[in-house]
Amino acid sequence: MPKIGIIYNDIKPIACKTAHQIQDQLLSRGWQVFMATGSGGLLGHSKPSRPVCFTPIDQLVPPHFDQDLSFAIVLGGDGTVLSAARQLATLNLPLLTVNTGHMGFLTEIYLNQLEPALELVLEGNYTLENRSMITVRLFREDTLLWEALSLNEVVVHREPLTSMCHFEIQIGEHAPVDIAADGVILSTPTGSTAYALSAGGPVITPDVPVLQLAPICPHSLASRSLVFSDKETVNIFPATANRMVMVVDGNGGSYILPEDRINVQKSPYNVHFIRLQSTEFFRILREKLGWGLPHIAKPTSVELP
Question: Is the Cβ–Cβ distance between 162 and 239 less than 8 Å?
């Protein structure tokens, strides 16, 4: 009997309702359906008194989800997609992402497109788009304190009410660089349209095998975003006496002390998004972010041809 998984945002009533409707529909057609909430992929927040607060990557898979699933349906916004990516990464399952949130930049379809889209997927009429992930680990000397998979980015920044921070960053075997800023962002190509974009970084198409380092409010005109090969391992060392905060995918993270080291490298796992339209990335940029649209409103002082 074929099997399908459903990951849904249990905070949104429409996602809950739709998940159970899909379950009933597929059960009547002879499919086995396993359901789980996206909360299982949420990252824990460490505290100064409790620095170890994370679930090992291989233990995030929901109960009854395995590699025998044909694919998984994700119902929610971008946050649910990020959680599901962590939960199912080790299974290498195709993901049909359905937007029940707001922007839904990472989602493939809207709710009103679900019925015909599901029929296409059940018939196998789709392509896959692979997105790279990074593995983020926090070490204190040689002790692993925290780890997580990230589809978007890892951010290290100063705490509120503290001053600017210094970071010593080593990329691969290259000489370390010192950055003075409010924080730094290390993102994947997928994350280049998230926080890194707001920090002035470039948009990177998903198929380019690179990572991006973007400083947040740097204290130097020479500190600009850097794009480099994702084969390089990155180590971030705090170079200031202030305690810092690390956040992964805008979801959870850990406190960073001066003696800590953050290690980031490309994950062996990819996210496999089901695509029903041609994977034309610029179309998504136009639809979701308004990139490249013509300037309709012109100043009245400008004479148009």
Answer: no
* Predicted confidence band of residue 305 (pLDDT cuts 50, 70, 90): very low
User: What is the arithmetic mean of pLDDT over 26-50?
Assistant: 84
Q: Tell me which residue of 185, 165, 188, 169 sits closest to 177, measured CA to CA.
A: 169
Q: Tokens standing for 180?
A: 């003075």
pLDDT in tens, 179-202: 999 999 999 999 999 999 999 999
Structure tokens at 271: 């996210």
Residue with tokens 């075997």: 173
Task: Give the SS3 label for residue 275.
Answer: strand
> What does 80-105 look like in DSSP terms, one character per residue?
HHHHHHHHHGGGT-EEEEEE-SSS-T
- Tell how strand 127-140 and strand 226-229 pair up: unpaired
Q: Which candidate in 10, 24, 58, 78 is catalytic?
A: 78
What's the rounded Cα separation, in Å, for the pair 122 and 133? Answer: 27
Q: Is residue 182 annotated as part of the catalytic site, yes or no?
A: no
CB atoms within 10 A of CB 285: 17
CA distance 266 to 246: 18
The Cα–Cα gap between 47 and 53 comes to 8
| DSSP-assigned letter for residue 178 | E
pTM, two decimal places: 0.90
Task: Tell me if 158 sits within 8 A of 182, measured CB to CB.
Answer: yes
* Chain CA centroid to CA 21, Å: 27
Q: Which residue bears the tokens 């089901």?
A: 274
Hey, what are 211's tokens?
Answer: 């990572």
Contact present, 236 and 138 (Cβ < 8 Å): no
